[in-house]
Structures are given as structure tokens and as C-alpha cells.
Predict the structure of Tc1-like transposase DDE domain-containing protein.
Amino acid sequence: MTTESGEAKGLQTVLEERGFDTKGIRAKCSPVCPFENEKCCLARIFNRQEDVINQVSMLEELITKAGHHCIFLPKFHCELNPIEMYWGYAKYRYRGVFKNTFADAKAAVLSSLQSCPLDTLRHFINRTWRFMSAYRQGLRGKVAEWAVKNSAHTHCLKACNACH
Ligand SMILES: [Zn+2]
């Protein structure tokens, strides 16, 4: 992908080195590639290469080397991310604490992050599972929200802070 001096070779050079005929193919479609087209532009051809598809990101590599699991969640779907719910819970608790100094604020951050009970964390994870289930059944938008909310109340055996 780079020259001996460390500069990027560019899409055309990389693809030609891999045996592709790049003559007459534009670099990238604008604004987006047409649906169901595999050879519309150099960028599309490049991104469909097996080694590119299976390339692990530097972030994932760093996290894995540190002995952790790296899980990428769908973008723009906070309902599928229990960490977002936990974060919202902690922020709500944080706002409720009186803070007079920066040291107070730092202490409030830690106590807010620690304040979420295990049952509530489980509730967040179960809520995510219910949304996944609703989406798998083809439900979308308000209908999915309605299904998740109603299944939560039928399955919730005791009142918890998160849903009542
Ligand atoms: Zn394209």
C-alpha cells in the first residue's frame, strides 16, 4: 500500500499491481456507488478485496492485544447499545449531585458511574435484546418501541428504577 519511502501508492497503482485493468474507471462514485454494482469505481473494487474486508483496525488490534474483546455496535442505534443506557443513567445521577468545586465534580463522576445497580444493568441489556428481537421480526420505529415497552412490562418481575 505504500512506496519504499512510505508514501501511499494510490488506488490505481495498488489495483494494477493486483492485476486489475483500471483504464477508464473513475476513482470514486459521487455521492455514493450505485446499489448492486461491484466494479463501478476504483474505491469499490478496492474495498471488495478480501484482505481489505478482513483488515483489523488499529483500534481493534490495540484493544485485543491488551487482552480485551472489541465489539463494534451499529452506529446511530443507541437502543442497541446497553452502554449508552448505562451512560445516560450515570449522567442523570451526576446532574443530581451538588458540586461546588472541581474535586467535587470528579468525585461525583466516579460515584455516579458506580451508582448503577446490577439489576439495572441487566435491564439495559435485556432491553437491547428485546429491540434486537423486534427488529429481527421486521418491526421498525414506533412499532418496535411499542413492542419492546410492552414486553418489558410483562417480563419485569419487580419495579426497577430504569423502567418505572
Ligand atoms: Zn462506485
